[in-house]
Design a protein that fits this description.
Elements: H1 2-28, H2 32-62, H3 70-97
């Protein structure tokens, strides 16, 4: 059980580091499109890490394979790229209306 808890802890710490680097990229990058790039990529890695930690924890806590967490990651994996694309498209249209090349 200690090994499982250590694995869950490592996955969650890794997710925290990924999210922090995503926030740092969001803060440091100068342009909207560059700012969108860092969180969009690292968000997926952080989410997968938390999902794997949840599956590991609940599978060993209940004694059976807990796959209900997969619903969360599937939903986020489908909606995150769509949202990022819509934000980029909106920024391009708004920039075009303002006369920015």
């Amino acid at each position: 059980m200690i090994v499982v808890e250590a694995g869950v802890s490592l996955l969650l710490v890794f997710s925290g580091i990924v999210v922090f680097s995503s926030a740092l990229g969001l803060y440091r990058l100068p342009d909207f499109f560059l700012r969108m790039h860092a969180p969009a990529l690292l968000y997926t890695v952080g989410t997968w890490s938390v999902t794997l930690a949840s599956i590991l924890h609940f599978s060993f806590a209940t004694g059976s394979l807990a796959l209900h967490v997969w619903l969360v990651i599937v939903l986020l994996s489908v909606t995150a790229p769509v949202t990022t694309g819509l934000l980029a498209r909106g920024a391009l249209v708004r920039g075009g209306q303002a006369g920015v090349p």
